[in-house]
Amino acid sequence: MECTVREAAAGEEEEIVPLYEWLFAAPGTRPAGWDPEWAARALKTAIEDPNSVVFVAQEEGEGELLGLCSAYIDLPSVRYGERCWVEDLTVDPDCRSAGIGSRLLDAAEAWGRGKGATHLELDTGIARVDSQLFYEARGPVTTSICYQWRLDSPGP
Q1: Which of 21, 87, 92, 114 is 20–30 Å from 131 (CA)?
Q2: What is the CATH number of the domain that holds 40?
Q3: Closest to 39 (Cα-Cα) out of 21, 27, 25, 57
Q4: Is the dihedral of CA 95, 4, 13, 131 positive or negative?
């Protein structure tokens, strides 16, 4: 499939937000409190902030959006230096295994390197076996398990 990977532009947020549905489909889940209006505002911030980027894959000729990848320079790690964190990476389920995810991840990697990041990180759900196979094929230098706690709700 012919597509272009490019940085999203301010004003495209409303067109990009629906792509998150691809992340929510099984084996994913919709986050509690998901608010598309808040998501559009957060995307606008990510697009405009020099320490973050949103890439989109788009069919040639101004066609449909086929994927997205958001990346952030998120913290200066004491052990590693600047880290580029890929927060969201998704491709239209009908277009997977066509190289779009690789192109999006390549763009995030090049962007992070250009920002001085020493490494690229992301996490994925344990149930996302296809995603894990995709990441493993790219030859990561390490793998890990990520834990998460909700801070916006009462404790245990």
Answers
A1: 114
A2: 3.40.630.30
A3: 21
A4: positive
Distances (CA, A) of 28 to 72, 118, 129: 22, 29, 11
Q: Which token pair is 67?
A: 């994927």
Amino acid at 28: G
Domain count for the chain, please give it: 1
Residue 142 lies in a domain: no
pLDDT digit string (tens) for the chain, length 156 residues:
789 999 999 999 999 999 999 999 999 999 989 999 999 999 999 999 999 999 999 999 879 999 999 999 988 889 889 999 999 999 999 999 999 999 999 999 999 999 999 999 999 999 999 999 999 999 999 999 888 888 886 655
Q: Is the dihedral of CA 138, 70, 99, 8 positive or negative?
A: negative
Tokens of 110: 């090049």
Q: Is 145 among the domain residues?
A: no
Domain residue limits at 127:
3-137
